[in-house]
């Protein structure tokens, strides 16, 4: 009798992927907790790179600290989303709520970097990336919502 290990390999791969995702979110949480203390040093270093960056210090500090709020919110939502997925609670409304909140966090960061772009035009690149991520998350959120509707329809069908 020939046994197929394809399913086992797939499950092991998904398990590793989930472990990597959970680990990365935990690393992000540690970085977020360190950020309020490290931000002044990082921005001071950035400003020291060029004499024309001296007028950027305070706007960068303000934008940096303001970004910590949506970043923290997004990290907590990602952690809860991954927790639900690990419990095999994938297509539930709460997960769509987490995705929606994370997308709004990306939009807020995009808006903050749009403002920063008036001091440093390179910030417009981060602004675009954040808005792009927000849109991608909205699309994924809509896919999840449709999957939930289909699942609910199937539960009521005999």
Shape: elongated
**In total, how many beta strands?**
0
What would the average pLDDT be, to the nearest integer?
A: 92
Largest sheet: none
Order of helices and strands: HHHH
Could you tell me the strand content as a percent range?
Answer: under 5%
Distance between the termini: 37 Å
Q: Helical amount among residues, as a percent range? A: over 70%
Round the Cα radius of gyration to an integer and report it: 20 Å
Separate helix tally: 4
Poorly predicted runs: none
Question: What structural class do you assign from the helix and strand content?
Answer: mainly alpha
Short précis:
With 158 residues, the protein is mainly α. The chain has helices spanning 6-48, 57-86, 93-116, 123-156.
Any key phrases for this structure?
single chain, 158 residues, mainly alpha
Describe this structure in words.
With 158 residues, the chain is mainly α. The protein contains four helices and no strands. It has helices spanning 6-48, 57-86, 93-116, 123-156. α2 runs antiparallel to α3 and α3 packs antiparallel against α4. It starts with 5 loop residues before the first helix and ends with a helix.
Secondary structure layout:
Elements: H1 6-48, H2 57-86, H3 93-116, H4 123-156
